[in-house]
Design brief:
Its main location: membrane. The protein is mainly beta. The protein contains 4 helices and 28 strands.
Length: 481
Amino acid sequence: MHHIFWNRVWKLVFSLAIVCLFLSQFNSVDAQCPQSKFQCANGRCIPSNWMCDAENDCGDNSDEADCEDRTCSGSEFECADKQQCIPARWQCDSDTDCEDGSDESPEGCADRTCPPDHFNCGEDDSCIPMMWVCDHDVDCNNGRDESQCHTITCSASEFTCADLSKCISGRWVCDNEPDCGDNSDEADCEEPTCAPNYFQCASTHYCIPESWTCDGDYDCVNGSDEENCETQHGASICGEGLFQCKNGDCIHDAWKCDGEDDCGDDSDEDKSICPTLTCAPHLLTCQDGSCVYGIPCNNVVDCVDGSDEHEFCAPPPAEQTCSTNQFMCRDGTCIDESRHCDGFADCVHGEDEPVDQNCGLCDSGFRYNWGTRSCEDVDECKEILGACSHICLNHNGSFTCKCQEGFQLLNHTYCKAVGPPPAVVYVYHHNIRKFNLSTYENGDLFTELSNPLALEVDVHDGIVFWSDSQEQKIMMGQSEW
């Protein structure tokens, strides 16, 4: 019996020892950095890609110890200090990427030439694709790509816009659609008249069937086909106790002149029928006579003229000031200047400890951490919306942008497509047109078609498909982009 008792005791002690050993190993693993981090000699964790980048990110330089001498690849530029490799295209781009500035040295950039299919911007020696020259979009920082564009010469069948910016088809002149950016193709046009049994929309050349007038449906852009309909057709089409809006809608007569636009065209609130406007009890009457939802004197402007926060409110108290050795909070409270930027929020809204301004304690690209009392890197890629248009790479104290294949980086953050400019293909009357989004020029792809409707474009092969309601067929055609 005595032997059994001590045997159980030794088993219990052995089990406790196993548990303690497991916990000690668990704690030691938990104290280390994650797999994606590098643990500095001082215990700090940094991203693994910050190792051997010629920057002391740990603070004790342990991330730069035992680093092998790196050899730059053929597509990279080796900085003069032989500590950094940067993409070759970053050399001579007016942006210093090497810490020693050797990628932008006058000696290295003086004799730089652009490839045959590129244009040299001049001052900063940057190169852009030749097709970007004279495309009405400034790509060089000095604007050189758009400063040497010559005046165009139009053919006999084309019309020259007054500003000499482009040529358009002669058939597009006076077609009631401005195709020149200065509207010169629609100037000095004779006033057209509509055919019999057609109605001409007011102040436009647009004609619609006369049967479309006063039918409760806006066919003219300015709604002139639905104006003066009660006079034109006699009695109102609305029943007793209803009010007919100018757009043909019917609303309750009690809703007329109540300060709310119930018709949708505001004709139920027209001043000619509402000489003395009285707002409903649940609405606020503004000084200009309009009615709005809102509460006066709540620091939220509801009236267009702002009268709900001025005319109806008591004058504000005299402006409060703090002494020279004090800091004023947003609510007017004064605190001692020594409590400003001390790591503890003393103002109700915390404006004495501005996070975005770092209280002047850190360099650009870093944020002060009041808990650790140290400057930490700001990840611009996560915190700045649209920092890069394509790919954003965060670095210690800064960030860089890269582009997807087929794009070129401009102004260090914006990626512009290399290739033909984007265009919109659309149906216009009996033609299919292409609108250039870079030059804002229209051009005909197919003309004098029967009645083209929906279309589809195979950009790769340059084929346009469209349905023709008159021919009752699906058509196709080849086009040069």
